[in-house]
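Re-running HTH hxlR-type domain-containing protein to confirm reproducibility after the cluster update. Everything else is unchanged from the original entry.
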Amino acid sequence: MTRIVRRPGAFVCGIDAAMDVIGGKWKVLILWALNEKTCRFGELRRAVPGVTEKVLSSHLKELEDDGIVHREVYAEVPPRVEYSLTPLGLSLNAALEPLGAWGRDHIYRSAEEPGAEAAAESGVEVAAEPVAGPGRR
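Result of re-run:
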């Protein structure tokens, strides 16, 4: 495994360094799906609706290079590849849990605020169920 090593001075703060790893539309959703279980590529694609094969493949490679995702290739015919979180990936998901809790609270707070009905009528969607995040069902 080739791991990208970054210079400590390359980032302004810890959030900057974390966002470098999880930045992008799909990475946190990939992490959430892998937190649930080890997945093959097709399973991940179904677990993250809307992601293209090219983007999923690219993000998995980046997460693997960063030491977040482990890629296991089995010597079978046809070849089988499974993706799982490394201990570093599990710790990243644990760090993302408070952010997921904040997001759920924000959604509920937005739904309870005055004008939420008007927002709903204008087409703005407000989730009625808790939003699942890393480690949540």
